[in-house]
Amino acid sequence: MEELAISLKAEGIQKKVISPGKGELSTFPDGTKVKFHYRTSLCNGAVVDDSRTMGGCSKPMELIMGKKFKLPVWERIVSTMREGEIAEFICDTKHTALYPLVSQSLRNISAGKDPMEGQRHCCGIAQIHSHHSLGHVDLDQLQASPQPLAFTMEVLQVLPPGSFRLDTWAMTDEEKLNAVPQIHEEGNALFKEGDTAAAAEKYYNAIACLKNLQMKERPGDESWIKLDLMITPLLLNYCQCKLMQGQYYEVLDHCSSIISKYEDNVKAYFKRGKAHAAVWNEREARADFAKVQELDQSLGPSVGRELRAMEDRIREKEKEEKGRYKNLFSHSASASATATTG
């Protein structure tokens, strides 16, 4: 332990154990997943981030050792900890200069945004030395005045390589491509069980793998098209889940994007037609269902059922509106009569 303290001090890191962990210290080979909670503070005690409260949830941070996380010092300090251990690390500025960018990404994730939002057109180091705002006053101040930071870490779990499935962001290109069929099958199984929310998440993850690979290809090239043809059925499955969850406008957007590339995609027209019908776009729904029949006459009975269901809903809506107007006029007439006799 003394040798470790000396080594950390030489690196500009001071460690204080708050609560000892349990078991043996892992050797943390590359590929090890570490789940932990963290609290980041200025040296005056002011809290910058806390994973237990960020975004209104308490989701822990996860690191895959050896995957070159933007803040290398986090890999270094968790590698000195046992499972269950809580410790505070005060790290010199040379280790913390990139923290504002890391914090911005983590805050975006907790808010359900793109983790790279605000970082698209500027590399990390260039951004640190620019006046680009990170969208948070405290992070802008920290970016303008880099300083030592205190990280209070609690290691929750250490998972050895091969004992878990890698998250998309941590996969190599080959691992992403190989993972897609299995994720697709898992989504199908969940859909058959009636768990559309979990199925949608699986389809989304598979799409994310392929989209990540597609971004590295030139649009229209053979490899780009091949990936797009793999994405399309997954996206249609995702849309089916969203239809069943009542998220019709998302279905309209995704199906329209498919149709803009594949004008003969019957499933995209059918799902878009159902979404249009659900949000009272009668003319658009009829046009989509007509296109479905044009492309595949065998779907005539299915289209007929959808059209009848839409027409029944429209009649019911018109009936309700007539009743509402009738009551309104009756009430107005009664009020006028009362005013006259009064």
Fold topology:
Layout: H1 2-10, E1 13-19, E2 33-42, E3 47-50, E4 61-64, H2 72-78, E5 86-91, H3 93-96, H4 99-110, H5 124-128, H6 137-144, E6 149-159, H7 173-192, H8 196-214, H9 222-244, H10 248-261, H11 266-278, H12 282-295, H13 300-341
Antiparallel strand pairs: 1-5, 2-3, 2-4, 2-6, 5-6
Helix pairs in contact: 4-6, 7-8, 8-9, 9-10, 9-11, 10-11, 11-12, 12-13
Subcellular location: Cytoplasm
Keywords: Cytoplasm, Isomerase, Phosphoprotein, Repeat, Rotamase, TPR repeat
GO molecular function: peptidyl-prolyl cis-trans isomerase activity
Task: Give a description of the structure.
- One of its GO terms (cellular component) is cytoplasm.
- It is an enzyme of class 5 (isomerase).
- Its EC number is 5.2.1.8.
- This is peptidylprolyl isomerase.
- The longest helix is centred in the last third of the chain and has 42 residues, at about 300-340.
- The chain folds into two domains: about 1-160, Chitinase A, domain 3; about 170-315, Alpha Horseshoe (Serine Threonine Protein Phosphatase 5, Tetratricopeptide repeat), CATH 1.25.40.10.
- It has about 350 residues and is an alpha+beta fold.
- The chain contains 13 helices and six strands.
- It is elongated and about 80 Å long.
- Strands 1, 2, 3, 4, 5 and 6 form a six-stranded antiparallel sheet that branches.
